[in-house]
Design goal:
By secondary structure, the protein is an alpha/beta fold. The chain contains twelve helices and nine strands. It binds S-adenosylmethionine.
Length: about 290
């Protein structure tokens, strides 16, 4: 039981005053000041006791404190040099290891390798700095070592794009590429007032788990194809493919082989349709050789 949660307005202010640590906008610092929210993130993030939890951006420890309560080993990466000392003192848990580093500079595969070797599940948890939500997530998605789950707070608008269904206005290349790699679960929507300082937009906690039954494809090429189809949303996939392939005839042949109408637009194609289109492209290229 945590009797003095850091995630309250009063405690956050006390810690900031004591350590003379005002929030820095440039590092995307919006601290959670509602204990129920961090409790739910920590409980959802840690899927089994024997796992290790990696937190990105612990700040002054609102979520970290709960991760250390429910997890046996927590590794927290923080860019701001003022925070490690604060975390060590205010949380004072032997479950916690703090690394002062820009997470974008971390070699994720090297970080994960020892856990893969010992079959220890790895759970990522974070109230992400919003200015680098997508680069951080893509860094994790591209890791080749296993990650059991990623549970993260982000802007609601970005979460809606990750979760978007085919045909909706939020559906884009990010939705397709993410849904191809991961199963997604919305843990909760969060009001902007649970943060200090409060951002201008609402937030959402999403959980990503990796699909184990993905088809074996050249991911870089698949990603390039999906992005190319969405380059000009209003244009047909035929138009977009003509530009990407720099070959009008090949683009028409590809759609014909895939059995897709040339009038279709990218937002009308589901993840399986994109995989089918990709497979047809590979077949077409092999037939050309
Ligand atoms: N976890 C705390 C909470 O929920 O109250 C703070 C979350 S705040 C939205 C984001 C945190 O990420 C800040 O502490 C910020 O300094 C840190 N941060 C920003 N960029 C980072 C980076 N590139 N690598 C590691 N931490 C970063």
């Amino acid at each position: 039981m945590i009797d003095q949660p850091i995630a309250t307005k009063k405690r956050t202010r006390e810690i900031q005053d004591k350590w003379n640590a005002s929030t820095k906008k440039s590092f995307g610092q919006n601290f959670i000041v509602e204990p129920g929210v961090v409790d739910k993130i920590a409980k959802s993030a840690i899927l089994s006791e024997e796992g290790v939890v990696i937190e990105i951006g612990p700040g002054i420890g609102a979520l970290t404190q709960f991760l250390c309560e429910y997890g046996k080993q927590v590794i927290a990466f923080e860019i701001d040099p003022r925070f490690p000392k604060i975390l060590e003192t205010e949380i004072n848990s032997d479950h916690l290891q703090i690394i002062q580093q820009d997470f974008l500079e971390v070699d994720v595969n090297a970080l994960l390798e020892p856990f893969a070797k010992s079959n220890t599940p790895v759970y990522f948890a974070s109230n992400l700095p919003y200015y680098i939500t997508t680069p951080i997530l893509f860094k994790l998605f591209e890791a080749t070592q296993p990650i059991a789950a990623i549970t993260v707070m982000m802007q609601k608008e970005v979460a809606d794009r990750f979760m978007a269904k085919v045909g909706s206005k939020e559906y884009n290349a990010l939705s397709v590429i993410t849904q191809y790699r991961c199963d997604l679960k919305r843990i909760m929507d969060v009001n902007r007032n649970v943060f200090w300082p409060s951002p201008n937009v609402g937030s959402t906690v999403l959980q990503f788990t990796f699909k184990t039954d993905k088809p074996a494809i050249d991911e870089a090429k698949f990603v390039a194809l999906v992005k190319a189809c969405f380059v000009q949303r209003r244009k047909t996939i035929l138009n977009n493919l003509q530009t990407w392939l720099a070959d009008k005839q090949k683009a028409s042949q590809l759609l014909e082989r895939a059995g897709m109408e040339p009038s279709l637009r990218a937002q009308q194609l589901g993840v399986d349709d994109f995989i089918h289109l990709y497979n047809c492209l590979i077949e077409l290229e092999q037939a050309d050789h």
